[in-house]
Specification:
The chain is mostly helical. The chain has one domain. The chain is 77% helix and 0% strand. It contains three helices and no strands. The chain starts with 15 loop residues before the first helix and ends with a helix.
Amino acid sequence: MSTPPPVVNANVPNHLVWAILSTLFCCLPAGIVSIVFAAQVNGKVAAGDIAGAQESSDKAKTWAWVSFGLGLAAIVIYLALMGLGMMSSGMNSY
C-alpha cells in the first residue's frame, strides 16, 4: 500500500481574492494570469511542494500588481485624453 504524503502545515497565501479583484476592476489579461497562478497554490501545498507553492504565490501577487498598474495607467491616460479634449473644445468656442 502506498502512504499518503505527509501533512505539511505551510501557510502560503494564494492571493486569489486580490487576483480576482484586479481582474474585474483593472486589467483582464494580466488578472487571468494572476488567477491561474493563485489557483495552483493550494494544490501544490497539498502535494507537499512548498517551494512550488511559494513560487506560484509570488507570481500570482506579481501579476495582480501588474494588472493593477495597467488598469491605473489606463485610467490616467483616459482622464488625460478627456482633459485634453475638453480643453480643445473649450478653445474652439471662442
